[in-house]
């Protein structure tokens, strides 16, 4: 949940007042796939002095040992206690009536800390006794302390008590929306006069909020945007350039007229299957002409395209197919084994449809274009849905920003990497030629270099690592490499301007290098074109300035440094959100105070950035996501899948950067002494996760190093798993 800084407080007295008024807390701890949550009574230590700070004090509680929390608790896992305070509503601001209640929708105190089991039987009974007495005093009859204690004494073997040592905490206050200053002032006056102490304190805080200056949040605006619907652009290009080369895939060479006729025929097939706006169509197969035609046909009928990379494990593909709710699966080749309970249709070769009667749907800004799956911390991928307002903006920008709109472009990205849409649609809407890179060349930089020369490729989109390897391959050749490149764009991870990359562009006078930035949840956000002279390039170039229609905001962690903080994206790039993940949408797609450009919705990227001289610089991630060969990988997902394997007690995965700019994953586990042998864990991961998410090794350790607070010490794990590390 996003809460603006002005709605947070660290006033210890106010926080503890909420805790005392609400003795039932929500305990949240990490589970193998999703967090464990449960309500339970929590008490202060009555013998301790009144805490003067938000942190550094202890709370006590108890729960049944059969509760899933207990296993996590016994393992020393960190957890969260959430207290929800006074909840009440006011008459909406649209009605100018007397205010009947405080204007706070809710008050939440969130404490993070370490759970420490109390092992002594009498300690457990003492916590139970104090809890029963507190409830008897607060709620009266029905909470007999003696009777409760006698009962718990009889079942003490099944009850466990714990101490919760608070490490961090904050109170979050959320105001009702759309409050006019006059109404808010009336509400404040009523709260200040309320006999209830808690409400009076909230009134004081609200009064201070009303007088406070709005948070100083830096922002950059890319200017107004008037994107053209990509379907209109495709139809126009096919009509204006019917004989121009559109698509090359090995021996298959299609003009725009031929590709458009093939699209029309596939679109008619989709219509016969009942597919239209609101439908979802899954597509699987190799990268190539058939999957490109399937994409165009799906978009033309207004359906949502769901790519399923055939290189993924079968179980993952089956999950994505079910989760997407697709009504039809188009496949290149034999019917896939994971296609259970769904209608399927094999994508045939190029064929001519009725072009005269073929008219793509009239797209509107919120019409979904595709749903793409990305790594998720629960052990299962999550779908992100991109709509026309987002993708149309990117395609229009690329057509107008590139060196030329009709460049001969290599299609390099995998189906489930969102850059492939930029390659395909950005090229075809601009009248260029899309050339499919053979799969066998994507990991062979030397053969790929020769292919680029042979195919006269002018534009490339590559992850940084692939660009670096290409530059290394070019550096060992004598003389001019013979490349036709005039534009290279890198995206997906932090770019490094290494000496081989600089030397490559010195040999390509006039070619430009662009650093693109975006996420699956917001597609293309910003761009930076490096200076013409490679010798002037910084090692870490900025991610640049926002595209037209995009607003980039910095949510500062330290008010004294408003230029550094988490990046929020608003405007055209913001997607429709995660498919059927309302909690995650509420957490990442947030409501913000009205921005300088009038936006009130933004996506929290999880990236730490700095704005300097009108440019945005990427600093680091704020969560457990890393980029492996440009593909976003969530370390917690890998750990969750490992924890699901029989015999595994604990697991941790780290990303090692043994060579600057090149990461690899390594994992470590401890085993349950009473559990079965887990077998080859790496092989099991390869059956469940995409290739980029499979660690190069899974080490079995007698124990995992921990910090003084009991958390897994990831830095120590990384050091022990490095070559030459002490295991």
Which properties best describe this structure?
six-stranded antiparallel beta barrel, alpha+beta, globular, Pnp Oxidase, Chain A, 727 residues, GMP Synthetase, Chain A, domain 3, disordered N terminus, 19 helices, 34 strands
Short description:
This protein has 727 residues and is an alpha+beta fold.
Describe the fold and architecture.
By secondary structure, the chain is an alpha+beta fold. Among the domains are: about 5-210, Pnp Oxidase, Chain A (Roll), CATH 2.30.110; about 625-720, GMP Synthetase, Chain A, domain 3 (2-Layer Sandwich). It contains 19 helices and 34 strands. It has a 6-stranded antiparallel β-barrel with strand order 2-3-4-7-6-5. Strands 8, 24, 25, 27, 28 and 29 form a 6-stranded antiparallel sheet that branches. Helix 15 links the parallel strand 20 (about 485-490) and strand 21. The longest helix is centred in the N-terminal third of the chain and has 19 residues, at about 120-140. The protein is globular and about 90 Å long. The two termini are about 40 Å apart.
List strands and helices in order, with pairings:
Layout: E1 8-9, H1 12-21, E2 24-29, E3 36-44, E4 58-64, H2 68-74, E5 78-84, E6 104-118, H3 121-139, H4 145-154, E7 159-175, H5 181-192, H6 197-211, E8 219-221, H7 230-240, E9 245-249, E10 252-255, H8 256-272, E11 280-285, H9 289-300, E12 304-309, H10 314-324, E13 328-331, E14 343-346, E15 368-374, E16 382-387, H11 388-401, E17 408-411, H12 419-428, E18 433-436, H13 445-454, E19 459-462, H14 464-475, E20 487-490, H15 499-506, E21 512-519, E22 523-529, E23 545-546, E24 550-556, E25 564-571, E26 577-578, H16 582-588, E27 589-591, E28 601-612, E29 615-621, E30 625-628, E31 631-634, H17 635-643, E32 648-659, E33 662-671, H18 681-688, E34 697-700, H19 714-721
Parallel strand pairs: 9-18, 11-12, 11-13, 13-14, 17-18, 19-20, 20-21, 33-34
Antiparallel strand pairs: 1-7, 2-3, 2-5, 3-4, 4-7, 5-6, 6-7, 8-24, 9-10, 15-16, 16-26, 21-22, 22-23, 24-25, 25-28, 27-28, 28-29, 30-31, 32-33
